[in-house]
Input
Amino acid sequence: MEIPKNELFSVLQEFNPWWSGQPIRDLPDWERSAVRAIREWIRDRETRRSLLLTGARQVGKTTLYRQAIRGLVAEGFPPTNILYATFDHPLLKLAGLDQTLSAWTELFPPVAEQPLMLFLDEIQYIPDWQTWLKHQVDFNRSMRIAVTGSAAPLQDGSVESGVGRWETIPLATLSFGEYLRLRKIETPNLPEIRSLRDMFEWQPADFARVRALAKPLTPHFHEYLLRGGFPEPALVTELTRCQRLLREDIVDKVLKRDMTALYNVRRVLEVEKIFLYLCYHDGGMLDIPTLTRQLEGVNRQTALNFLALFEATHLIYRLKPYGYGKEVLRGRDKVYLADAALPGAMLLLGRRLLEQPDRLGAAVETAFFKHVFTRYYAQTPRFSYWRDTKGKELEVDLVAEIADRIVPFEVKYQDAELTQRRLKGLRAFLQDKGVDQGYVVTRRWEDFGIVEASPLKSGEKGHQARILAVPAPLACYCLSA
Output
């Protein structure tokens, strides 16, 4: 649709105040760790790849790009060579890419010998954006392009076209450490902990010292589980309003707007029912036959289709069973919500979540998985869960395969002593796979330390392995990038 140029000029100038020397307003001074990766991409002028920043709605993608732009302008980069445009805006959505870029270059002819820097928000609203981006990367070296998307392309061939042409940064919701900084909560002065793995070398005195310093994190961690890691709701003082914003601004907009606009979904009631079912079973095994039996009017194919859409819109993560071959293909998926606070907000639990051990344990497991995923994504890990195939009902919540390492994690967020019996699944995995180290995420601070994994059978000489028991608040804080 042809849009009058004066209207386009007006919208673009509002989005790009640096063109006229104006500051970027309402921008926080503190920055998320993902800004570093964006700045590295900006500084790397040799790469031809574009940048794709993906994540759920309202997770902070726009803020990251605007902070990167602020840094570019402060370093002396020509302001008029920088364009920010969001295609969530009705006028730009109607105008499309070509008209928008034409209006920009007509307003401000490019400064010679400097690249054009494009920051394009909510690119999924542009038809065939992958083809356009591929063409620009292949044939236009004068242009650096960074885009964001709240909805990933499904497996339609477009994913393959981006291989080698753009790099992807997945932006999860705020980590526990970022949440504390956002809310300006004083944090303990802990010794530098580069990774949880370092703690295997600690002495008992080290554990005692860090335990005393970090224990005050617990109430803030519980509040984090209730409020979640979406920046705007997390800042709201009243918890009831915070959780209402989670429902209305995050979930409802995805389920009722993005699903219909991007994927032509018309049966919104079925979408809501399946998502509520996932909230009720967060962190659990997903059995499709059980789901279809319990949700009237939902058949197997509909459920599978909507699960793919939830994943594409960054509302869920899915894990396959550990291993390879038919067992993995036939195994059930394990599903985590994008943020630990979503189930409580959707099911209207409020603070009652903290009084329900099963719900609280699921929230902790979801939060911990997100931290591990975010911390190690750049190393292209493979995430899975493990269940004993010999019918012993032993399991490990999360297994991360990072390079040549196999790292198992078990979450035991109960107020009970951490005995060898309660670690039986983790011990079985360590022994069966010949792994030397494992982790258990606990609730009790007195459990913080190293546990020697005893053989599964009394008197048996088993594989020598050690388990690090680390309280969940400290684990998530240390994994916060």
